[in-house]
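User: Continuing from earlier, I have the next pair ready.

Assistant: Great, send them over.

User: Here they are, in order.

Assistant: Folding the first of the pair now:
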Amino acid sequence: MTATALRVRARLLLRQDLPAPAERRAIRQAAGLSQGELAEAIGVTRQAVSHWEAGTRTPKGALLDRYVAAIRTLRDAA
């Protein structure tokens, strides 16, 4: 498998790990974070987190990596 194919496969696996929008919001709220605080932690705007939690947009690329890592961390800490 080529390096590009491996990267694509890794992204698809990450996307599968991304909870549904309502669950993303619930995980963040259970951790006691505002959208702005989560956004600052992963280096995006509050509006980006709002869109992701509403399901109107989906993070891509490195943002997907960081968002999934943050959501996993918050979920595991609960």
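And the other member of the pair:
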Amino acid sequence: MTHTAGPSFVAPASATEACLAAITAAELIVGTDHDFVVNLYLALLDRWPDEAGYEHFMERVRDKPEERPGAIHYMAQSPEALSRGRHMPMPDPLVPGDPQRALAAQMDLRSSFLFARMNELKDRPKSEAADPAIAPLVRELRAEMAALRREMREELAAIAGRLTQPPAAEAAVPAAAAREEWADLLSLAEARMEMRLRALERRLP
């Protein structure tokens, strides 16, 4: 899938505070290069990446996962992050967290940002809301996002259930194969989440 930078809009400073407190650096570095850059901006700057920033960080981390800790540190020291009082503890060494927990934390970060953006649109003064269709659109998008969050949590729980079930003795699966299946299941869940999140993001005015 080809990814491009999303719209350059800024949410209120408190939009993702709760999710920032919940997501860790170890969870942030899990996933695709695209997801890492988007989530890095949301976690530390509380906004979607602008095109130049997106390309800069993608160039830095593309196919180089070892560069992700440095990118987090670099972003955290930026004037914009410092002005927002953002801080993300960085253990040394920084190793990727549990994939399932990381995907859930990233889902909460992304969807909470979109919820905040929807609330911002809904609460605009009437003089600024030129499009009378904004209110119904926001209601529709909020319902879709709530459904997506619920479905993703159910899917993650189902994946966890499959992986923790003890296999029958005659059908024992080697640990490496189980890990590979886990990665495949999480990748499918992440791909579905990504497509639907991007579809919702594109519909925001």
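Worth noting for the second one:
The chain is about 65% helix and 0% strand. The chain has a mean pLDDT of 73.
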